[in-house]
Amino acid sequence: MKLEIYESEEALAQTLASTIAAAIRAHPNIVLGLPTGRTPLALYRALVALTREEHLDWSGVRTFNLDEFVGLGDRAVGSYHRFMHENLFDHVSVRPEHIGFLDGRSPDVDAECERYERAIAQAGGIDLMVLGIGANGHIGFNEPCDVLPARTHRVVLEEPTRAANARWFGGNMSAVPRAALSMGMATILNAREVVLMATGEGKVDAVREMMTGGITTELPASFLQLHPRVTVMLDEAAAAGLQA
Ligand code: PGA
Fold first, then answer.
1. Strands 153-156 and 179-182, how do they pair?
2. In the chain, where are the structural domains located?
3. How far is residue 44's CA from residue 36's CA, in Å, rounded to a whole number?
4. How many CA atoms within 13 Å lie on the side-chain side of 106?
5. Per CATH, is 2-243 categorized as 3.40.50.1360?
6. 29 alpha carbon – ligand 1 mean position (Å)
7. Which numbered atom of ligand 1 lies nearest the CA of 40?
8. Is 199 in the pocket of ligand 1 (CB under 6 A)?
9. Contact between 137 and 211 (Cβ < 8 Å)
């Protein structure tokens, strides 16, 4: 895994935004895999600013988000759909029909997961997958467990993950759904290139284990060691465990 350490979250976000903007210019039909959460907020701010300054054309870009809460979709409070529209999609020229999302409200979860896998395949696969990492080492909503489903699936969320998400529900943890739909590890590892961002001291242990520990379902991000083109972008706080 290629490691890059930045002096601040802002510097990291600026660099990655420039990389993504350059990739869109070079490949106007690029397929992006996108995350939600606190970490990508600075990235999306920087991307929106760059898009404005450089008149970046998103009309050929396709996107697939990593995950969504079961029961939520569209603009529902706390939904990742809403997060993405508010923080990125409403501010760039991506076509609505090019935005791929799991529908957490689907009555047939298995069919919805299969549809998503087919949609990614029909788009030609994901060119650049952007990831955050949970403090417990999850990516997407692939939580630590004994057996990781390979493909897009329904997952029961861990309590710390629900607590970390309460901020999207006005701080009310009881409003956070107990389950989600998520790309699986094989879906993620099939991307041609992966960038994982981590910022802040809360990610120190997860980052260290991901990069220096063995490959284990107890730390799903460790599977990224199997991918030939992964860049790990850290701020100094998240990298502290590596320098020790
Ligand atoms: P965070 O979440 O960016 O809100 O810390 C990252 C993740 O859980 O993947």
1. antiparallel
2. 2-243
3. 10
4. 19
5. yes
6. 27
7. 3
8. no
9. no
Assess contact for 187 and 149: CB atoms under 8 A: no
192 pocket-lining for ligand 1 (C-beta < 6 Å)? no
Encoded tokens for 138: 């999850």
Tell me the CA–centroid distance for residue 134 and ligand 1, in Å. 5
- For a mutational test of ligand 1's pocket, the pick from 34, 36, 69, 176, i.e. the residue with the most ligand atoms closer than 8 A to its C-beta, is 36
Tell me the three state secondary structure of residue 31: strand
Residue 153 CA neighbour count, 13 Å, CB half: 16
Cα separation, 63 vs 81, whole angstroms: 12
- Residue 132 Cα to ligand 1 middle (Å): 5
Residues known to be catalytic: 67, 136, 138, 143
List average pLDDT for each run of 10 residues in the chain, which is 244 residues long: 97 98 98 97 98 97 97 88 97 98 96 98 98 96 94 93 91 94 98 98 97 96 98 97 76
